[in-house]
Write a structure and sequence with these properties.
- The chain has helices at residues 9-28, 77-92, 142-155, 199-211, 236-239, 256-268, 284-289, 318-333, 352-368, 396-404, 414-417, 439-443, 474-481, 484-493, 501-509, 512-517, and strands at 52-62, 66-70, 108-114, 126-130, 134-139, 170-179, 185-191, 216-220, 222-223, 226-227, 272-276, 339-341, 372-376, 389-392, 408-411, 459-466.
- By secondary structure, it is α/β, with parallel strands linked by helices.
- Strand 4 (126-130) and strand 5 form a beta hairpin.
- Helix 4 packs parallel to helix 6 (256-268) and helix 8 (318-333) runs parallel beside helix 9.
- The protein contains 16 helices and 16 strands.
- It binds ligand TNX.
């Protein structure tokens, strides 16, 4: 039995120490024997579905006599445990001590252990061993531990059982879970350019995404309607270009301090921020701020409409590349993640040769600042380095070009993965140029074989973009993103064999208490038999 726990030496000492505490707590008072009704770990509402679940049909009693300990040798584990304790407090009100030697009466322990065992796959993999007395979470890195505690959060009951003992108890089903992601890149995108979203809004979105093991947030920071990131060497970008948004509202932008705050918050959730500066098209806001950029001698007007494809940088002007160099440098300096997204979509008024010349030059600038370039699928027409990444949204032909060049592809097919598409004809927000995407359509497709000629080895992962032409506040963001985003988390984390709509929709229905507790204004689609949802779909559909 012991061998199954895969604990390293230091871990073993701490467990031993915890056991001693447990025993000493029992010497004065007899340890309570709790008779749990049979529970089945495999029936829990975990999303994304873990790779392997072996139930043992008893329960661990989470209560005020539970304490959390971690490996101390590896950095980050203590913080992951603090994060868990904080979330347990939010859900149950319990205040569980973390790595405290004088934790008082401790009957049961949660131990977050760093292991080097190859049984735990990759840096995000983890194993959970839940017995009546202990929960042991094994991970090779704090990142894996962080993914594992999301699973644990999901299997803590919403309400306590107050009849099993004198104190309230949250019974957690026993068994073993081994888990690791199918795709390394599991993302959402937020368009903060068409409408601006505050740092607080972005943080709430990060909270929700992290619970479902999403590990990338791509921020679409610039477009025709607004420039949203402070560039110190070109201050008018935000002074002028940041002043508008779609529909005549007031715009806004992130100072570099704000952006760093988002990046740090994301990092605490083991999430990478990918900045996007969309170019050479989608650049009206930049050219209004600095008319030299468009090269046509005219100062454009600020734009608050929703048409695309009318703006371009002058791709043959040195000043334009000096400008881009400054922008990429300043943003890269405050972006620890490996990627820089250059947009590159819908440059309808840029000549093809100019477009290709431009993308190739910008790729070199991105590389100069130590980043890997990502571009929307049109960039695959250029001659690019194999390390750059093509972001498929529309053109299979472009995705195939990328594969031929040995590049990785991110999948965001507009017909399946666009969060701004309406659910159906009654949807309150969204567009439908690509498709209507009800919750089942969003889930029932196979990224592994979706784009012809794009094999699984070429797929970096799945991303669900949320364009914001039709939404301007967090409630509206949540209406479009949830519940569909929860399905995309399973599509990118769980393997094909582990995905099944009939099974998923029951687990999804059971997310209602969590979403309600987080005050998420999700679209309570009538296709789902929501568990005690406080939102009726009728209330939030069009009349
Ligand atoms: C297409 S997808 C766009 C965006 C729009 C979106 C609306 C892509 C790379 N470009 O500019 O916001 O459609 O659904």
């Amino acid at each position: 039995m012991k061998n199954h726990f895969l604990i390293n030496k230091q871990g073993a000492w701490i467990i031993l120490f915890a056991m001693v505490l447990t025993i000493s707590s029992c010497t004065g008072e007899k340890k309570q024997v709790i008779n749990f009704p049979a529970t089945d770990l495999a029936m829990e509402n975990m999303i994304p579905k873990p790779t392997k679940i072996i139930p043992t049909n008893s329960a661990f009693g989470l209560d005020q006599f539970t304490a959390i300990y971690t490996s101390q040798s590896e950095s980050g584990f203590n913080e992951v445990a603090e994060f868990l304790s904080d979330k347990i407090q939010g859900k149950t009100g319990l205040n569980l001590p973390v790595n405290q030697s004088d934790a008082g009466t401790v009957d049961r322990v949660i131990y977050i252990n760093k292991t080097d065992s190859t049984e735990v796959a990759g840096s995000e993999g983890y194993q959970l061993y839940i017995t009546k007395d202990s929960i042991i979470l094994n991970a090779r890195s704090s990142e894996g531990a962080f993914r594992g505690i999301q699973t644990l959060r999901q299997i803590i009951p919403e309400v306590s059982n107050d009849t099993l003992a004198e104190q309230p108890i949250w019974p957690i089903p026993t068994g073993k879970i081994s888990d690791n992601p199918n795709f390394e890149y599991r993302a959402s995108m937020l368009d903060v350019a068409r409408h601006f979203f505050s740092v607080e809004d972005v943080k709430k979105y990060i909270d929700l995404l992290a619970y479902y093991k999403i590990n990338v947030l791509h921020l679409h920071l610039t477009d025709d309607q607004g420039w949203r990131i402070e560039i110190k060497s070109w201050p008018k970008l935000t002074e002028i270009g940041g002043s508008t948004e779609v529909g005549g509202e007031s715009g806004g932008f992130y100072t570099q301090e704000d952006y760093k705050d988002i990046v740090a918050y994301a990092a605490k959730h083991y999430m990478t921020i990918i900045p996007e500066v969309d170019m050479p098209g989608h650049t009206n806001a930049a050219s209004v701020s600095y008319p030299i950029l468009n090269g046509n001698g005219k100062t454009p007007e600020l734009y608050e409409g929703t048409h695309v494809g009318f703006s371009t940088f002058d791709t043959r002007k040195d000043t334009v590349y000096a400008f881009i160099d400054d922008v990429v440098r300043e943003i890269s300096e405050i972006t620890p993640g490996p990627y820089f997204h250059i947009g590159g979509d819908e440059s309808h008024v840029t000549k093809k040769n100019d477009y290709i010349y431009f993308v190739q030059k910008v790729e070199k600038i991105v590389q100069k600042y130590g980043k890997r370039m990502i571009g929307w699928d049109e960039v695959a027409q250029a001659n690019l380095d194999g390390s750059s990444v093509v972001h498929f949204w529309n053109s299979e032909e472009n995705a195939n070009k990328a594969v031929e060049k040995g590049m990785k592809v991110i999948l965001s097919p507009a017909t399946k993965a666009y969060l701004d598409m309406e659910y159906d004809t009654l949807s309150k927000f969204g567009l439908h140029w690509a498709a209507y995407i009800p919750v089942d359509t969003a889930y029932i497709w196979t990224p592994e074989s979706f784009a012809k000629g794009v094999p699984q080895e070429s797929i970096l992962g799945v991303e669900a973009p949320l364009w914001s032409e039709t939404i301007s506040n967090i409630d509206e963001l949540e209406y479009l993103a949830f519940p569909r985003m929860i399905g995309y988390s399973e599509l990118s984390w769980s393997t094909e064999e582990n995905r099944n709509w009939d099974n998923f929709k029951v687990r999804l229905a059971n997310q209602a208490p969590f979403l309600d507790r987080m005050d998420v204004k999700y679209y309570a689609s009538p296709k789902i038999d929501w568990k005690e949802s406080k939102y009726s779909y009728k209330e939030i559909s069009k009349d």
